[in-house]
Predict the 3D structure of the following.
Amino acid sequence: AKGRNPGGSLLDRLIAARDGDDHLSEAELVSLAVLLLVAGHETTTNALGNALLALLQHPAALDRLRAKPDDVPAALDELLRFDAAVSTATFRFTTEAVTLGGTGIPAGVPVLVALGAANRDPERFPAPDQLDLDRNAAAHLAFGHGIHRCVGAPLAKAEMEIALRALLTRFAGIRLAVPADRLEWRHTRLVRGLASLPVLA
Ligand code: HEM
């Protein structure tokens, strides 16, 4: 649609960049668009919504960060562990047969690692369903692990810190506008997040 009706956005400028000598191929353009919109934007948007929802449902944690916004950076790992925006990693393929948790997985098959489940593993994080801003959650898997760990993690954390600080300091009375069980979650395979997060400020 943007190719047919160009505007002035970053995507439009990338599309326009196909015309020069050192031009972007269609595949490079699509790949960049996915990177910007899904990896860069959807993830952070939903991580922020999930983190704010967690705080709105845990008033003590919310009050604490509101009183001491400088504690927000240290709270981010626990907020990301508690409810991250990317529920599974992208596909991996076994290079050899492996037994994991008592289940045999043959060689050469696709495997999806449930990052959200790993973040609630009681052997790694005791009482994992509790939001505990004092726990050391630095080993969470919200950004994946290994060679494909999120390259945007520092940017995502900076964005979350800026947004949460601003929300907590500018909107002192921020609270949920609807009961939590009426919130609508998006139905997507990869990204976990709310369709909307209605608040009163
Ligand atoms: C809170 C926000 C974010 C979360 C939860 C998140 C999560 C993840 C996860 C779980 C992976 C690994 C996927 C896998 O192993 O299959 C990943 C990879 C990646 N992320 Fe993020 N991400 C976030 C923000 C961003 C941002 C802001 C950018 C870029 C501006 C970004 C760019 C990427 C890229 C390029 C990869 C692929 C790295 C590779 O395959 O080597 N992400 N992200």
Summary: DSSP finds six helices and six strands in the chain. The two ends are 36 Å apart (CA to CA).
